[in-house]
Structure formats: structure tokens, C-alpha cells
Amino acid sequence: MQPDELILQLKQKNEFAFSQIYDMYSENIFGIINTIINDTQVSEEVLQDVFIKVWDKSESYSSEKGRFFTWLLNISRNAAIDKVRSKAYKNKRKNSDFNNFSFFIKDDMNLDSISDGYGIRKFVDQLKPMCVKLIDLLFFKGYTQKEDSETLEIPLGTVKSRNRT
To answer: Residues in domain RNA polymerase sigma-70 region (predicted)?
Structure first.
């Protein structure tokens, strides 16, 4: 099938046409998204969102206004920029993944002895008492943020903000 025929069938919600369009364009669109986001996993999520938008808004495409690829490119670019500007994405970039630090912990050691060995405890002890309680529960006792919130009787959002700070 030619792209024009596929686009017409896509507008009629033909799943085969959608699949063919995905196969034709997804690799290029992923490259564009990943250039902006620079994170493969997040870029794959945005790519999926882009093609959901293409499916939902296919009737809004008009060949008189421009090429299909340009329309698809604009949706992709805007979705990637929206993702990079989102608060959740920015917060994720601020927080380090625990796996980056797991090499410090050996199976036969307990976290308090490790943290004391690296001098982390002395820095934690210099924080405000509420922050010390929060960090102690989250990092030294393994509580989740929700459990920490319930134990300290403070809102979950406050726990998340203090943890990030």
C-alpha cells in the first residue's frame, strides 16, 4: 500500500494501516524523540504516546496543510518537549537511582555500619530533627515514602519534598 492509501485507511481507524504506518515511521520518530529526551526508556514511552495521539487525531491530518511525516514530526517534537518540561521528568532527573549506589552495600553488612563507615551519619545528624527522622526511616530502616508519611503523620507530598531536598 502507498502512504496516501494508508493515511486514508488510518483516518477510518483501520488497525492494519496503523500498524503499517507505525512500522514505516517509528524508527525515525524514535530517533527524533530520543535526541530531545536523551533517555531510551522515556523516549519509548513518548513514542507510544505519540502513536496513540496519531490514532486518536488521525482525522485532523490534512494533506493540503503539509506532508504526513511533517505532521507526525510536529506531534513527536511537541510530545518530547512537553515531557522534558514536565515536573515529574525534572524531579526524576534530580533524584539518583538507588542502583547507582548499591555497590556500597554488601549482603553481610547492615546499612548503619556502612553509612557510619562512609561518614554519612554525621551529615544526617546535622539536619533538622524532622529531616533526620524522615531520612532514618527511608534510608536506614527501609520504609517507603507512604509508610514514612503514615509513621510521621505528615502528608505524602511533604515527605517527597523533604526527601528530595
So the answer is: 22-87
